[in-house]
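Homework-ish question, so no full write-ups if that breaks the rules, but can someone show me the predicted structure for this set?
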Amino acid sequence: MIALYVVAAIAVFAAIRAIIEKNTGRKLPYANVLNFAVAGALVLLLDHPLSLVAAAAYFVGSTLESNAIASTYAGGVKR
Amino acid sequence: MIAGLEVAFGLIALAGAVSAALIRDSYGKLISLGILVAGVLPFIVDRGYLDVAVTVSLIAPIATIFVLMVARREES
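A: Not a homework solution, just the prediction itself:
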């Protein structure tokens, strides 16, 4: 139970820092911390075998999203 | 869910929604959209709709990638 509180506190802190930060390059690591914390919270919230699948899907999806934003922000593919 | 956790994740979702409405930069807006989804998803999982959670967490990045195509085209 204490792990859930720790993970939620990390998620709130990372969300506030990601919103307050002005520079986009500094926003992205805090958004990643938020995504990892939420993926951990999804496993701990519900005691069901499929919650592992939900957390894995969220982990894959959020990592894909962050990588797409970061690679576009860095300039994308040079043609 | 425990009341403190409801407050925490609701705060994350509301902060993501307000910042997505207010931020002018397009990349910052997309990051705020990700924060909004991250705040909403624990409520879906807590009710037990795990198939809905899997679908949302796989479709939201695809929507972000489609919006990114528009953002990149506007810049160049």
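Now go work out the reasoning yourself. Hint: The helical segments of chain B are 3-22, 26-47, 50-75.
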